[in-house]
ABC transporter ATP-binding protein
Amino acid sequence: MSRSFRVRGTGQEVRALRGVDLTVPAGSAVGLVGESGSGKSTFARIVAGLLQPSSGELELMGTGVAGLPERRRRRLAAPIQMIFQNPRASLNPRLPVHRCVAEPLLAQGVRPARQEVLGLLDRVGLPARVADLHAHELSGGQCQRVAIARAVAGRPALIVADEPVSALDVSVQALVLNLLKDIQEESGTSFLFISHDLGVVRFFCDEVNVLYLGQIVERGDAESVFADPRHPYTEALASAVPDVSDVPDGSGADRSRRIVLNGEPPRPEQPPPGCAFHTRCHRRIGPICDETAPELLPTATGLTRCHLRA
């Protein structure tokens, strides 16, 4: 799947996604990680039906949606809900909480009883009095819980969670992550979990896909990828995850093992030739990296896009 955008004024084409192929099996949690600008949110919005791919195919429940009439496509996308990064901005400020939570059901032609909505709020740990409040009267953590209640209201098969805890305090992050984990285990809902925080992804996800400049550069089960990363970019990301147990003074970062990447990611409208990562790679092996784009190759732990593994 690929997605391009045109830059206003210049007409330049920006390739936000370049041949991304990803499957979310039923009942699993699949992570998508990478730096800002890597294409994570673009992919999330395509899966949720908010954007269309420029090329490639999107299948929902085994059915391709390209070329389908709008009504048919919306019906197929009904079992998919999204949790956005900014919880407050994702809620209609004019509607009380109970109406926000009921929106997915109302869109399906179902008018839920108030008690059903209160039950959803209770499930995410919110008291009944919250039902009549508005988003501006809630804390960030409460807003995110309302967004989660709204997402699970229609009993979705897939929840696309786009940085669902990055805007929250660390203590609230833990509560929200445990809540999402409980929902997955209780209902069997699948998750596409988008994040730049590898520690969060390692905790929540079964599989992880590492995205760099619109391409997947590594894929595998979460524990294997973080314990033994096979792509230099993943290796650098994993080295930045604090592990307090390894540091005698409890500072949470072993500086001797930290891999610092030089420079900024290339501009999407001007990707470098060869391997997209070679301009920042600490394991570059020569002209082949500069000139030849590597394929996604199998490894002992999954797949990686690197000439070192060829």
Notes: The CA atoms of residues 42 and 210 lie 14 Å apart. The chain has two domains: 20-205, 229-310. The chain is about 30% helix and 15% strand.
